[in-house]
Amino acid sequence: MEVKVLRNILEANDALAGENRRLFDRHGVTVLNLMSSPGAGKTTLLERTLDALKGELGMGVIEGDIATRYDADRIGRHGVPVLQINTGGACHLDANMVRHALAEFPLEGMRLLFIENVGNLVCPADFALGEDAKVTVLSVAEGDDKPEKYPAMFQASAAAVINKIDLLPYTDFNLAAATRRALELNPRLAVFPLSCRTMEGFEGWLGWVRGMVRDRFA
Amino acid sequence: MEVKVLRNILEANDALAGENRRLFDRHGVTVLNLMSSPGAGKTTLLERTLDALKGELGMGVIEGDIATRYDADRIGRHGVPVLQINTGGACHLDANMVRHALAEFPLEGMRLLFIENVGNLVCPADFALGEDAKVTVLSVAEGDDKPEKYPAMFQASAAAVINKIDLLPYTDFNLAAATRRALELNPRLAVFPLSCRTMEGFEGWLGWVRGMVRDRFA
Questions:
Q1: Between β-strands A190-193 and A159-163, what pairing exists: parallel, antiparallel or unpaired?
Q2: Cα separation, A201 vs A166, whole angstroms
């Protein structure tokens, strides 16, 4: 019974994600759905990315959190429109939450919309929001066994950011092993090891984001 | 509809957790349910705790993971009985999974059973397993805003371990702020900042675990 209910929920979600997708298409906006464990650094990655690209193209951010509007406040300081969704306990964003948020979030002039999901390396992988691509962020502090232990995330994503590489000397994280494990799960995954603190590796990630926006209009 | 289904699921789970609890009571075994984000260090905390206490009392471990038996293999090297549950996608352990595991996991002679939940700072908080207490592990690398952003975990727990304090010099984690935020959510929470690498702060945690076992027989 539980399985059937879940299937119905996912089918209903996919239908609403399709509606969101058509709205994004009409406005020509590229949408990236950022997912990770709590504290892997999604918000900091966003802050650095907004600062790097804000002279180039119109951007916006939808922040998903169970509680608080800390992340929206952080993003708001970077001069881009931001909208906070509080799920009130739910462990992931779904297409309906995003649809409601979009009703009060003008897409005019926007070329790139980031949706930062609830910090959770499991559930968000199953819920399409209407995005062009999912991005998984993994922090070096979490350990290099995480791709195999949380495979759905890496299988569902087009890109994976391995964040906080400035912590590599203080952990036993094996970057080559983590990358290999992620690529075994998803050979088409674009993997970007980087640090939002030192900015090492950041240009590769920016190039991928720029390519996602460009390809939509190709 | 979704809410009603969830309530039915939680009620059914609570009933099964009560059955597990009666089984634990009959065997006089204290049960701790360890929860955290992926990679916060639950397994390493367990390895150090088993090594410290294995001369004192009989212990066992149930490992919950979506996939792989890496964690059970790690625990098995410490000479205690261990059983791996793979949830096959589910984002938390539930009482029924534990009940099935217990059918093949003898509790005779065991005084302390650790159940390591799936790495997820949201969903496991809602699902009782029959444990005496929940313990939340938070890593310094995750950021000091996590208690407020994931309040249910901290509200449901009797203890919180703030792990990886050896990384404090390399992060902007404010230990006093994180502790204050956790205690605002749950004034009865026992908070243990520690490092499983340097073992700083570990004795406080061990004292709490010993107290939990002792109090069951008081």
A1: parallel
A2: 11
Is residue B12 within 8 Å of B126, Cβ to Cβ? no
Indicate the burial class of A183 (C-beta count within 10 angstroms; 0-12, 13-18, 19 or more): middle
**pLDDT value for B86:** 96
Q: What is the pLDDT of residues A90-99, one digit of tens each?
A: 999 999 999 9
Please tell me whether residue A185 adopts helix, strand or coil conformation: helix
Domains, chain A = 2-216 (3.40.50.300)
- Nearest Cα neighbor of A95 from A85, A104, A80 is A85
CB contacts of B84 in chain A (<8 Å) are: none
Does B184 touch chain A if contact means CB atoms closer than 8 Å? no
> CB–CB of A121/B38 below 8 Å?
yes
Q: Which two tokens stand for residue B71?
A: 């964690």
Q: Outline where A28-94 has alpha helix (H).
A: 42-53, 70-76
pTM over 0.90, yes/no: yes
| Cα nearest neighbour of B4 on chain A | A5
Asked whether the beta carbons of residue A37 and residue B91 sit closer than 8 angstroms, the reply is no
Chain mean position to CA A27: 20
Q: Which residue of A has its CA nearest to B69?
A: A149
A152 touches chain B (CB under 8 A): yes
- Cα angle value B62/A120/A101 (rounded, 5°): 150
Which helix H or strand E contains A154, and what residues bound it?
helix A151-156
Residue-by-residue pLDDT tens, chain B, 218 positions: 456 777 889 999 999 999 999 999 999 999 999 999 999 999 999 999 999 999 999 999 999 999 999 999 999 999 999 999 999 999 999 999 999 999 989 999 999 999 999 999 999 999 999 999 999 999 999 999 999 999 999 999 999 999 999 999 999 999 999 999 999 999 999 999 999 999 999 999 999 999 999 988 76
Instruction: List all residues 6 or more positions away from A211 whose beta carbon is below 8 Å from its beta carbon.
Output: none
- ipTM, 2 decimals? 0.90
Q: Find the DSSP H helices in chain B.
A: 2-27, 42-53, 70-76, 95-102, 146-149, 151-156, 175-185, 202-216
DSSP B171-218: S---HHHHHHHHHHH-TT-EEEE--TTT-TTHHHHHHHHHHHHHHHT-
Q: Determine phi and psi for B161, rounding to 5 degrees.
A: -100, 125
